[in-house]
Amino acid sequence: MDLPIIxxxxxFFYMLLIIGFGISFSFRKRTAEDYxxxxxxxxxxxxxxxxxxxxxxxxxxxxxxGNAYMGNWNGFVFSLSIPLAAIVAVKYFVPLYRKLKSExxxxxxxxxxxxxxxxYASICYLLTQLARMGAIMYLLxxxxxxxxxxxxxxxxxVTGISVIVYASLGGFEAVVWTDAIQGIILVGGALxxxxxxxxxxxxxxxxxxxxxxxxxxxxxxxxDFDFTTSTFWLLLIYGLFINLQNFGVDQNYVQRYLSARxxxxxxxxxxxxxxLYVPVSLLFFFIGTALFAYYQAKPExxxxxxxxxxxxxxxxxxxxxxxxxxxxLLIASIFAAGMSTVSTSINSSGTVxxxxxxxxxxxxxxxxxxxxxxxxxxxxxxxxxSIFVALALNGVTSALDAWWxxxxxxxxGVLGLFLLGVISKRAKSxxxxxxxxxxxxxxxxxxxxxxxxxxxxxxxxxxPFHANLTIILSTTAIFxxxxxxxxLVKKER
Length: 493
What we know:
mainly alpha
């Protein structure tokens, strides 16, 4: 597809600018702490924008509008749980990690239950990040496929390498400052897109509300207590568990708590990042609803092959429905969102590998030079592996549903282990270990039984629950088993 030179110029200029900005940090003399925590000298507003950008990614920018286009606002319920989780984070998680003063989010679990607990949580985290980065890189490729006509696998490889270079060489400080810049560009691009859609309606902006209301597009989902489908209550509870896990045991967030100058600034940044995401996610869902109304009013503009391809609707509109200049801004915004999240995951994964694996199993006291070499190697390795994950996701119907399902599985009930350690002071390592085994079995049943139990003889043993219940039930199983064993032993004594 031929695009105006101005759009291509805006996009490529932005890409070169952001990659160059990230790489510029590599010329500074840095310690391992500078690379992983920015030296603990970053301002609260920049960290808050970075937390916001960690929430927002191309998953939000493309998948949320696609989700709203294909369905309704049920997915927005997930965002409503974020302020609830932020309250817990500010009161308990931020002070805990600031007190521990370890760059790893899993140091607490190791101290509480032993080395096995920290290693288990670290492995679950790395698997989750691979799934997350893969989903984001795949979504980044969709608008570029429409923009330039290149194959999706080629785009994944090229953009993946670009992000890896800038994130690996720039370190945490580059990640935070580029997050802050890209968060602003992201919101600006989304607002510009919505305005164009609204004022392109044949009967004016009000027609969006008329068409959407008739199609029940503003619904938050069923309020029935049915946990076999994506109801309001299921999404709210799922969001609460996922966001408690994000704030409590996700390395991406813990590094930001530790990078602030003081605990008070860490708390402010947590509130800023989490509360800012709620209205912005609402903006994304409204864009999807507006696109539905737009193509209902102008059906001749949407090719038949895109009717059921939710994730590709917004990229198609960006390329075909926006004026020259705005298209380039939107493509840059999508890459801003994706690069922010992938760069965050690459940096935090490198930190986990150094702290929880290299220092534990190879050299407890590496030199600064050795630590930097491990961080760079680990960052490049995780980024490279995520490219293969993105290639494997090519062709999925909904990247949002795929990411939610994978994150539920790979999280491994780590939140349950963390809550057991914090709430039950008497729980021992053996109680936690048994709880984790039960939790993993629950995960296997919930995620694998719908795939393998398909014959008549096995249907009775198949999980009837929605995939999003995986993290909820596994977390509950680990906590309840561990807590129950602790109470039982105490009673016998």
